[in-house]
Structure formats: structure tokens, C-alpha cells
């Protein structure tokens, strides 16, 4: 999961031992929604697609299957080592914040959980529009993480408190890391301002139960972010309670809202 000028530091590091777990959980919880959104673009054999911030490459591989041998998929990330090889899939190390855009034009450009991390997000959208062919579509998915009342069921008040504290501390650390917790709600207007037509936004959310992928993602995040969490006031005792409850099937939370916005270049 990739990703900053005012270069803020991306909160996660694909080089850590926990990164593969994080990327796997993200794929499990988000790929079905992403595939639905991308299918809705009318993707066909022969299309040229660009998956930005490709992470583990699960969507890039799926796109490669969809466009077939006559199509082409480019998967980019600042640290693309987790992207698996696939027929008609090219993997490149690429930093969207400063590197030149790939040459040529694309039928489809997809970015998931990327622009919310990049302070230059609005300028990047303008650049991505220029990389689309006429009729090409831009699909952007990001979480809206401003709403934190996510606990649906919990085994104890202490467990609820630890999880809520975790969310609050993560949110407090978001602006310094360059994260805009409300960016997803602005993407529709930004794509329209960039000149795209037929701009639509689909909102997706579901429940996550302890020990399943969504809760395991939070647990993985707590491991990767532990030094920062402790620095921001989270205690080791709270971390133990948090990690225990995220494995407890009695614990049920809502996912963040995933807002997927799609727009089409006209000329």
C-alpha cells in the first residue's frame, strides 16, 4: 500500500516483515469491491491499464486476466517487491509525486488507498487525467476515516476503549503523515474540476469480526505503527488489550467507508 514538495512520510513501509500480512489483508477485504467498480467501467480485452500503488498486485493481476493477451497492464509502486509476475503485466518502481508519467495513454487508471496519503493529491489528479486517452476512465478509491464510531459489538468496555483509543491516536497522527481523512468525500468534486465527465461515487462498507481479515488488518497496523503509537500516548497495556480483542470473534466493528469515484475523459 504506496505513496509526497512537502514530502510527508508514508505511514507504512513495504520493507518490513509485517508488510506482506498487511497487503494480504487489504486484498481480502477490498478486492471484491474494487473488482465490482472496475467491471462497471466496461473493461474489455485489449485495454491498456495502469494500477498505481499496486501493493501485492492482486488487482493488477486480475486486470491482466481481463484485458487478455492483446491488452497491457502497468503496475507501479514506490516499493513494488510484493507484486507478483503475470502475463502481459509490467511492474515498475515509480513515485507518483515526482517521477514522469508513463508514456502513452490509458483506457483505465486505478488507484486504491493512495491519494489519501499524498498531500499533492489534487495536482496528481490533474496529471492522471492527461494520461488517459479520450474515453479513458480514472477510478480512485480511498477510505473516509473521519468517522470513528465503528464498534458494533464488543466483549468488554475495556476492549471498546482500547480500540477507540487506537483509532483516535491514528487519526491524530494522520495530518503530520500527510493523510487527509476526508479526501475521499472531496474526490468527486476534484475529478469534476479536472474536466472528467460522468463522475460517480459508490460508497462501500461492511462489518468485520475479530480474527477475520479486517480486524487482522488493524492488528497488523498496530504492529507496524507501534513506535508512533507509543510516542503519541498509547500505552503498552492498551496495545495488549487491543491486539487481544482484534482476535476475539465476539468483537464486531464496521469498516471505514470506502468511497470509489470514477470519471471519464471526454477529449
Amino acid at each position: 500500500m504506496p505513496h509526497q514538495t512537502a514530502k510527508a512520510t508514508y505511514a507504512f513501509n513495504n520493507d518490513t516483515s509485517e508488510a506482506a500480512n498487511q497487503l494480504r489483508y487489504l486484498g481480502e477485504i477490498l478486492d471484491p469491491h474494487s473488482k465490482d467498480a472496475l467491471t462497471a467501467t466496461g473493461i474489455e480485452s485489449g485495454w491498456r491499464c495502469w494500477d498505481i500503488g499496486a501493493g501485492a498486485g492482486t488487482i493488477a493481476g486480475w486486470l491482466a486476466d481481463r484485458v487478455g493477451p492483446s491488452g497491457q497492464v502497468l503496475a507501479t509502486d514506490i516499493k513494488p517487491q510484493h507484486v507478483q509476475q503475470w502475463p502481459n503485466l509490467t511492474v515498475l518502481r515509480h513515485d507518483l509525486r515526482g517521477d514522469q508519467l508513463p508514456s502513452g495513454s490509458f483506457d483505465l487508471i486505478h488507484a486504491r488507498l493512495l491519494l489519501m496519503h499524498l498531500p499533492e493529491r489534487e495536482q496528481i489528479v490533474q496529471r492522471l487525467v492527461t494520461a488517459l486517452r479520450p474515453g479513458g476512465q480514472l477510478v480512485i478509491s480511498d477510505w473516509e476515516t473521519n468517522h470513528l464510531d465503528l464498534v458494533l459489538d464488543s466483549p468488554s468496555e475495556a476492549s471498546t476503549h482500547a480500540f477507540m483509543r487506537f483509532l483516535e491516536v491514528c487519526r491524530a497522527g494522520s495530518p503530520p503523515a500527510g493523510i487527509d481523512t476526508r479526501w475521499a468525500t472531496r474526490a468527486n468534486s476534484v475529478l469534476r474540476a479536472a474536466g472528467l465527465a460522468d463522475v460517480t461515487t459508490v460508497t462501500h462498507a461492511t462489518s468485520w469480526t475479530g480474527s477475520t481479515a479486517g480486524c487482522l488488518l488493524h492488528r497488523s497496523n498496530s504492529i507496524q505503527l507501534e513506535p508512533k503509537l507509543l510516542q503519541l500516548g498509547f500505552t503498552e497495556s492498551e496495545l495488549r488489550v487491543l491486539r487481544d480483542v482484534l482476535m476475539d470473534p465476539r468483537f464486531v466493528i464496521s469498516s471505514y467507508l470506502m468511497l470509489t469515484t470514477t470519471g471519464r475523459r471526454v477529449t
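The longest strand covers residues 132-144. The radius of gyration is 18 Å.
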